[in-house]
């Protein structure tokens, strides 16, 4: 089954409604009343913490998406009901498309009372191609929407707050977005040192590091802060982000045309990985305004 552009637009409207409902719920929650639990997951704390807000947000999203789910027989992969025990048995491998949902990406920043969290919803084909992406930042009220049809590339579009998104003028400083867990990685000091050398060689005045956001807002930050990159190395343990962390922002990156998004080997992000929900096997790099190939080569060297 191939969706028409009109059908994709209708599904994008549903995803937008879902993201806004969840975002309003999240923004209105009193974070001083949070009760934090832990779940089986990846090796980092961010992959393990969960709150009732995450769970309730996912329920709101799925309920809003349900008409399209039933009409088009879509699978659903949500962070709060994903399981690593039988990944290959998930319906996303037997249906043509699936919703990929992160009801609250950046749970740690949310718990701590800071910004850097978002709602993320994507429609992904069984092939792994992200057709639609919606990201909503409850802290700022910014809404990002992407239509990224592979069958109609001329119809690709990215909107920010309802208007066509436009790249900002280049800055003299390079912005590096990293997950906070990367700071405890023994590879971190060498990577930072080499990245600083690289960006200065490419003519920038220096580099500033941002480590306060979840994966979704890290990727959005790359789009909004040219020149910039989001840098995630592969690692042997489970974690390194999940499918729901990257699907919507991959759709946005591909549709806007000025953000490169790949694994550290330069191939498209594996958004329907058959053996895991995690992305630790190949890492991820988003970049804009900088030589993406040079970043890939540096990431491969640092990964060895």
Protein topology:
Elements: H1 5-27, E1 36-38, E2 49-51, H2 52-72, E3 75-78, E4 97-105, H3 107-112, E5 118-125, E6 130-137, E7 142-147, E8 157-160, E9 163-164, E10 173-177, H4 188-201, E11 206-210, H5 215-224, E12 228-232, H6 243-256, E13 260-262, E14 284-288, H7 292-303
Parallel strand pairs: 3-4, 10-11, 10-12
Antiparallel strand pairs: 1-2, 4-5, 5-6, 6-7, 7-8, 8-9, 12-14, 13-14
Task: Summarize this structure briefly.
By secondary structure, the protein is of the alpha+beta class.
Helix content: 25-40%
Please state roughly what percent of the residues sit in beta strands, choosing from under 5%, 5-15%, 15-25%, 25-35%, 35-45% or over 45%: 15-25%
Low-confidence stretches: 42-49
Biggest sheet statistics = 7 strands, mixed
The count of DSSP E runs of length 2 or more, i.e. the number of strands, is 14
Helix and strand pattern: HEEHEEHEEEEEEHEHEHEEH
Number of helices: 7
C-alpha Rg (nearest Å): 18 Å
Shape: globular
Q: Within the largest sheet, what's the order of strands?
A: 3-4-5-6-7-8-9
Q: What would you call the structural class? A: alpha+beta
What is the arithmetic mean of pLDDT?
Answer: 90
Q: What is the end-to-end distance?
A: 42 Å
Describe the protein.
The protein is α+β, with helices and mostly antiparallel strands and 304 residues long. Helices cover 33% and strands 23% of the residues. The strands form three sheets. The protein has a seven-stranded mixed β-sheet with strand order 3-4-5-6-7-8-9, sandwiched between helices. Strands 11-10-12-14-13 form a five-stranded mixed β-sheet. The protein has a two-stranded antiparallel sheet with strand order 1-2. β8 and β9 form a beta hairpin. α1 packs antiparallel against α2, α4 packs antiparallel against α7 and α5 packs parallel to α6. The longest helix has 23 residues. The chain is globular, with a radius of gyration of 18 Å. About 3% of the residues have low confidence.
């Amino acid at each position: 089954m191939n969706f028409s552009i009109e059908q994709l637009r209708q599904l994008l409207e549903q995803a937008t409604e879902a993201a806004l409902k969840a975002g309003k719920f999240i923004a209105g929650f009193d974070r001083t009343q949070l009760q934090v639990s832990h779940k089986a997951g990846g090796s980092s704390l961010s992959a393990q913490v969960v709150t009732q807000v995450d769970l309730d947000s996912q329920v709101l999203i799925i309920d809003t998406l349900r008409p399209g789910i039933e009409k088009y027989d879509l699978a659903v992969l949500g962070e709060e009901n994903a399981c690593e025990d039988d990944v290959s048995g998930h319906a996303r491998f037997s249906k043509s498309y699936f919703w990929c949902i992160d009801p609250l990406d950046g749970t740690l920043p949310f718990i701590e009372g800071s910004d850097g969290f978002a709602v993320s919803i994507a429609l992904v084909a069984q092939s792994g191609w992200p057709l639609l992406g919606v990201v909503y930042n409850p802290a700022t009220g910014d809404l990002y929407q992407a239509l990224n049809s592979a069958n109609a590339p001329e119809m690709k579009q990215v909107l920010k707050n309802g208007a066509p998104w436009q790249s900002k003028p280049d800055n003299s400083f390079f912005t590096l977005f990293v997950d906070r867990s990367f700071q405890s990685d023994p590879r971190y000091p060498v990577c930072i040192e080499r990245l600083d050398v690289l960006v200065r060689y490419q003519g920038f005045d220096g580099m500033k590091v941002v480590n306060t956001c979840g994966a979704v807002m890290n990727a959005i930050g790359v789009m909004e802060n040219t020149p910039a990159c989001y840098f995630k190395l592969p690692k042997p343990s489970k974690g390194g982000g999940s499918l729901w962390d990257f699907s919507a922002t991959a759709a946005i990156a591909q549709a806007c045309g000025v953000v490169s998004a790949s694994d550290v080997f330069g191939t498209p992000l594996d958004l329907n990985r058959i053996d895991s929900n995690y992305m630790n096997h190949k890492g991820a790099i988003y970049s804009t305004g900088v030589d993406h190939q040079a970043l890939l080569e540096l990431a491969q060297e640092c990964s060895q």
